[in-house]
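Late entry, written up from scratch paper. The run itself happened at the end of the previous shift, but nothing got recorded in the book at the time, so transcribing now.
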Amino acid sequence: MASMYDIFQTDENLETGGIWLDYGDFRILIASAGQGNKKYIRIAERALKPIRRAMQAGAVSNERSMVIMSEVYAKSIILNWQVKVDGEWKVGIDGPEGELLPFNEEEVIKTFGALPNLFLDVQEQAQSTANFRKLEQETDTKN
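Output as recorded:
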């Protein structure tokens, strides 16, 4: 039987050092969007503070929320982005025309804006406690 520690305790190194999300021809190294990632907490609080009352009142549109959070993620969650080119991993982001764009905050934000479903998947994975549990990563490595 799993204890609450087995379920909710995460590996601090994984939370800040990140895990790879493998999408086949591209992969993204993400940190946790949880309490163990102090950089994320600090940046998110700073970004959300000016609109906190509007959020509580339900007056922030989904689009505005996505823009703010994609900026927060670009600054604190996305640690690396790689594309497979001729069978080798290269740092960069696939552009809409197949070109290799530089990996930087601006391109991450643009990519998430163009592909909101990708952003939602990354957000879901970054918020998943299971992805950052040491036991889970050891099990995944063995498989």
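Residues 112 and 119 are 5 Å apart (CA to CA).
(Scratch paper discarded after transcription.)
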